[in-house]
Each structure stands twice: as C-alpha cells, then as structure tokens.
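Recall that a protein's primary structure is simply its ordered list of amino acids. Everything else, from secondary elements to tertiary packing, is in principle encoded there. The following example makes that idea concrete.
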Amino acid sequence: MIEEDGHQWAKTLLQFLVDLNHAVDAASGALSDEAICETTKRYREILEQGGTECPKPPPKESGRRGRVKKTFSRNLLERLRDFEADTLRFMTDAIVPFTNNQGENDLRMTKVQQKISGCFRSMEGAKIFCRVRSFLSTCRKNDVSPASALRDLFQGKLPAFMS
C-alpha cells in the first residue's frame, strides 16, 4: 500500500507500530495503563487518517447482486479497526510477540504437505505429522539440530532440554 498506492496512513502506522514495539521492549514487555491509553488513542487517529485516504466504496446499486468490492487498503483498514485489541495485544501482554512469524513458520510445512499431497490420508497421519513437526520445531528453538535430535531419538535418548 505504501509503495503501490502511496497511502501515507500506512507508512505512519508502520512507523508507529515499530516504535511501539521498541517502547514495549524498553518497558520489559508491557506498557503502563496511561501509556496504553495514549497509544490506543494515537492508533485510532492513524486509522481515522486512513479512513480519509481510502474512503468507503459507494453504496451498492439497486439490482446488482453480491457485495460491493473494496480495495485491499480499505479491507486492511477495516480489519485493523475491527481487531484493534488483537493487533495491539503485544503491548499489554508480555507473552504475545510483536510478529506472528514463528507461528507462520510452524504452520507452513503443514500447508505445504497439504498442497503437495492434496490432504492427509487419515486423521492419525495428520496427528503424527504434527507431532514430528512440533518436536523438530522445539528442537530448533532450543538450539538442537533436527538431524542430531532425530538420531538421538532413534537411539532411545532424549535431547538435553527434555531431560
């Protein structure tokens, strides 16, 4: 949106969220109630600016079927407005990360498996796949290479972090 459509509100929001993440890190994972109130107010102001830059589409013409098409920018703006609490949860709850990159990485192989094979042949096969992926992901997060973790596992030994 910033590069293709030149929306200033998106650029402002991006910088705001990055700065907010640094402020949350400096505050040891959660902001004070006063800071949360100020931050939420500023977030809403930026979204209002977005509302002026990408206004609602005109109402549906009578006799036309289906929904009125909205731009990508408008859809994002409405999702950011509707899911404000979820978007800003990282500033109130120290356990919530700023990005969902790790969650996406953990799910990506499952989606690739489904795309290549079309589906899992059974629920049991899906559960086994998820169990193995979860084990390997946990090993990686604990600085244990997947190859050595699997080798140890087949030799009847658990990785050190599981002992």
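The first helix runs from residue 8 to 26. DSSP finds seven helices and no strands in the chain.
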